[in-house]
From TrEMBL:
<dbReference type="Pfam" id="PF14053">
    <property type="entry name" value="DUF4248"/>
</dbReference>
<protein>
    <recommendedName>
        <fullName>DUF4248 domain-containing protein</fullName>
    </recommendedName>
</protein>
<dbReference type="InterPro" id="IPR025342">
    <property type="entry name" value="DUF4248"/>
</dbReference>
Length: 76
């Protein structure tokens, strides 16, 4: 079975790139703010990210961080 080109794949990705996948109709800044708000308001997600060593200032998310985010928020 061939994967579709638009299918999301867990991988290392820039935080702003992931934010834009979730909110393509917004500016990068707005999308990043919204993604960060979702992450902080979801207590289970935020705790898991903290356990992985996530830092607010990071620019690139690890595959494990992306997996945790998409498990809690759904795929973009």
């Amino acid at each position: 079975m061939k994967k579709e080109e638009n299918e999301f794949r867990v991988r290392a990705i820039g935080k702003s790139d992931l934010a834009m996948l979730y909110n393509p109709h917004m500016s990068v800044r707005e999308a990043l703010r919204l993604l960060t708000r979702w992450m902080r308001r979801n207590e289970g997600l935020w705790c898991e990210l903290q356990e992985l060593g996530y830092r607010k200032s990071c620019k690139i998310l690890t595959p494990r961080e992306v997996e945790v985010i998409t498990r809690h928020l759904g795929e973009p």
